[in-house]
Amino acid sequence: MVNLNNKSVVFLESPKEYPIPGVHLKVESKMLDDELNEGELLTRNLYISLDPYLKTKMGGVGHPSIYKVGQALDSYVVSEVIASKNDKFPVGAVVFGNLGIEEYTRVRTSNDLKIIEDARESKVPLSSYVGALNLAGRTAYCSLIDIGKPKAGETIYVSAAFGGVGQIVGQISKILGLRVIGSAGSDEKVDYLVKTLKFDAAFNYKKGNIVESLRSAAPEGINIYYDNVGGETLEAALEVLNRFGRVVLCGMSSIYNRTTPYGIKNIILAILKSLKLEGFVANQFSDELEERFFKDVKSWLENGDIIYKEDITEGLENTPEAILGMFQGKTFGKAVVKVADL
Amino acid sequence: MVNLNNKSVVFLESPKEYPIPGVHLKVESKMLDDELNEGELLTRNLYISLDPYLKTKMGGVGHPSIYKVGQALDSYVVSEVIASKNDKFPVGAVVFGNLGIEEYTRVRTSNDLKIIEDARESKVPLSSYVGALNLAGRTAYCSLIDIGKPKAGETIYVSAAFGGVGQIVGQISKILGLRVIGSAGSDEKVDYLVKTLKFDAAFNYKKGNIVESLRSAAPEGINIYYDNVGGETLEAALEVLNRFGRVVLCGMSSIYNRTTPYGIKNIILAILKSLKLEGFVANQFSDELEERFFKDVKSWLENGDIIYKEDITEGLENTPEAILGMFQGKTFGKAVVKVADL
Ligand SMILES: NC(=O)c1ccc[n+]([C@@H]2O[C@H](COP(=O)([O-])OP(=O)(O)OC[C@H]3O[C@@H](n4cnc5c(N)ncnc54)[C@H](OP(=O)(O)O)[C@@H]3O)[C@@H](O)[C@H]2O)c1
Ligand SMILES: NC(=O)c1ccc[n+]([C@@H]2O[C@H](COP(=O)([O-])OP(=O)(O)OC[C@H]3O[C@@H](n4cnc5c(N)ncnc54)[C@H](OP(=O)(O)O)[C@@H]3O)[C@@H](O)[C@H]2O)c1
Questions:
Q1: CA Rg, chain B, in Å?
Q2: C-alpha A123 chain-centroid distance
Q3: How far is the CA of A252 from the centre of ligand 1 (A)?
Q4: Which residues line ligand 2 (CB under 6 A)?
């Protein structure tokens, strides 16, 4: 094989607020040295996940970037092996795992890659393997079960409910027999949550007072708050949580792009109502729980118990704009980039 | 028996900030109607506990008072039965439980009273039955075990460490093999924590930066933060907690006398470090755990494994000043009022 021209999304500078295309990251074309060593692979990337976690990796307020200037960002990717010096991953295999945000990736250590055995006759869209069946889904499933401890008949509130994680949290909760309330940043998202994803209630957090919206969606209070956004929404949920309520601290999207921190003023309610707030990182859960996640969510996707709305941006060159759009709430569903067809 | 002249501490008005003698509460003398009905008792109160919880009961910012104007406050009390129409509590029995902050109490329902069988030859001071063997001790023991989940070799940090709850939390933690760090509001208290109560390290939170003091007392970080004060100290502890750390949210003394709430700005650390924060109310624990508490703490007090420093104010008439002093941190140890000798 000859040298390949490879487009990558590369890091330029840590964003203090929003990551701006051309300032903090950009698309760059470079020749890829595809002369493989023993054990290495070359993959052609098909679908790439965009996650808010990219902001953390790029650094910003208080944290340095994990990337060097000019280095390609990385993410959860579905990819086809197009050259291989590794028997475990033959040419033609379709894999998913952590790879570069680029058209082609030269894979030096393939440890975390997994083969999608039925890729060519998959019953779920291949893109599921970067979100619903990857970080977003694993995060949702494992933390909801392990930390949220949902029980049939309880009420759960999920913020950023139409995001990659939130959609799954809400729909698993429905499957488990909970009453599910979601919030999102536009009326279209709210509509979709109720009409298509069958949430029991949803509201647009940008309109009106969050405590009031939540109280009227959950007149008897909530038992679990699945927190994707932090800040004012976390404060509102603390107000409306019932005794012995649980807060799953998953993410704080409302503060990632702020330069001044937001102070939570009503933590004392955790004492008065015996609340538990627990944070986690997605890789802390047991192998057993991760296996249950993959099996359950795959079968729920296959039989339609879970619908997973993805907002697919076509073409690697549009990735920086898509990343910015995700942080601005412009994405309608889970943010994914499609680089190529299988 | 003839009618008794009875001094009581009565409620006047909800304090927005500190409870001021003469403004929010005062001592009043009244004749007590001691003509008992069937089932009733008359008790002569000996020791009375003063707890920060009084502030909550008296109302203030956002919460109404549970007392009516002119009504006697109530608390944890050790008392002698001096008249009885109730076979379970004969004259001469020494009891402890919830009674009025007054010289004599006419007890209409004696449900929660317990008899101290060995009161006249007690190996622990009778005053222990209002604090170490009552709310303060029960709170400390049950929440530390059930929520803190202390393990030998771990490091715990306790704020308001020389208070009624804090002293017990720290000393139980030592017994369980933890490294114990405390903070308090004066150098004398800090000295006592280290020299007499055998804390491994302690600091005066009013001097210097709390994060720095905590880091130098716990260079390898802390695993449990037992929070009696909230606010800035809670923020500092979140900074210094290690991965999978637990925060026992017991009380927020630093905000009880503030009119403006304090915002916790670094809750995001709970996600990055997989921290758990859990609040509780003292009566939520199992009977089994409460029984273990009483048995363990009583024997630790008897054999000197736990030292319980009480700051005893003599005379009921000095109670309003003692209450104010407790909120101002003037109390040296657990705040107790001695009304009379047995
Ligand atoms: N702990 C972990 O290990 C772990 C793992 C994965 C993800 N996470 C976190 O989980 C959260 C959800 O992740 P995701 O992948 O599902 O992302 P996502 O929700 O699909 O994407 C971000 C969404 O957050 C919402 N948002 C943006 N700014 C906001 C603001 N100021 N206030 C409220 N909402 C805002 C937007 O939707 P709206 O239109 O509704 O505003 C946006 O679409 C993120 O915070 C992420 O960092 C944590
Ligand atoms: N959750 C429950 O069910 C439950 C049950 C019992 C008690 N509690 C709570 O547990 C905490 C401790 O109770 P306790 O009976 O042991 O009270 P305590 O600590 O004996 O009395 C209050 C002490 O708090 C400290 N303090 C006062 N203002 C402060 C401030 N601004 N910042 C930091 N510290 C301050 C003072 O000591 P310094 O000189 O060290 O400042 C004061 O002596 C209280 O918050 C109480 O409300 C909760």
A1: 20
A2: 21
A3: 7
A4: A 271; B 51-53, 135-136, 139, 160, 162-166, 184-186, 189, 228-229, 250-254, 280-282, 326, 329, 331, 334-335
Q: Which atom of ligand 2 is nearest to the CA of B335?
A: 20
Question: pLDDT digit string (tens) for A5-25?
Answer: 999 999 999 998 899 999 999
Tell me how close the Cα of A8 comes to any Cα of chain B, in angstroms. Answer: 28
Nearest-CA distance A20 → chain B (Å): 24
Yes or no, beta carbons of B277 and A270 under 8 Å apart: yes
Q: Which of B251, B261, B284 is opposite residue A266, by nearest beta carbon?
A: B261
CATH 3.40.50.300 is held by the domain B4-131+309-338: no
| B213, two tokens | 């003091």
Q: What are the two backbone dihedrals, phi and then psi, of residue B207, each rounded to the nearest 5 degrees? A: -105, 125
Contact B252 A274 (CB under 8 A): no
Cβ-defined contact of B275 to A278 (cutoff 8 Å): yes
Report d(CA B203, CA B187) in Å as an integer. Answer: 8
Q: What is the pTM of this model?
A: 0.96
* Residue spans per domain, chain B: 4-131+309-338, 135-279
CA of A291 to the centre of ligand 1 (A): 24
Chain B interface includes A281 (CB < 8 A) = yes
Q: Give per-10-residue mean pLDDT for chain B (342 aa).
A: 86 94 97 92 97 90 88 97 96 97 94 94 97 98 98 98 98 98 98 98 97 98 98 98 98 86 96 97 97 98 97 98 95 97 94
- Chain A residues with beta carbon closer than 8 angstroms to that of B271: 249-252, 279-281
State which ligand 2 atom lies nearest to the alpha carbon of B250: 1
Rounded Cα gap, residues B17 and A121, in angstroms: 69
At B212 the three-state DSSP class reads: helix
| Closest-CA residue to A179 (of A215, A223, A214) | A223
CB distance A335 to A50 below 8 Å: yes
Query: Are the C-beta atoms of A50 and A327 separated by less than 8 Å?
Result: no
Q: Is A286 exposed, middle or buried (0-12, 13-18, 19+ CB in 10 A)?
A: exposed
**Of B252, B271, B280, which is closest to A252 when you measure between CB atoms?**
B271
| Interatomic CA distance for residues A183 and A194, integer angstroms | 10
CA distance A263 to B262: 8
Q: Do B252 and A272 touch (CB under 8 A)?
A: no
Who's near B222: CB < 8 A, 6+ residues apart? B155, B156, B157, B181, B214, B237, B240, B241, B242, B245
Token output for A37: 């060593």
CA distance A263 to chain B (A): 4
In Å, the largest CA–CA distance within chain A is 68
Q: What type of residue is B313? A: T
Q: A284 to chain B: nearest residue by CA?
A: B274
User: Testing the interface with A: which of B277, B283, B285 to mutate, by most A Cβ within 10 A?
Assistant: B277
Fold for the domain defined by A135-279: Rossmann fold (3.40.50)
Give per-10-residue mean pLDDT for chain A (342 aa).
Answer: 86 94 97 92 97 90 88 97 96 97 94 94 97 98 98 98 98 98 98 98 97 98 98 98 98 86 96 97 97 98 97 98 95 97 94
Q: Indicate whether residue A228 lines ligand 1 (CB < 6 A).
A: yes
Contact predicate B10/B74, CB 8 Å: no
CA distance A310 to A340: 16
Task: Enter the ipTM.
Answer: 0.95
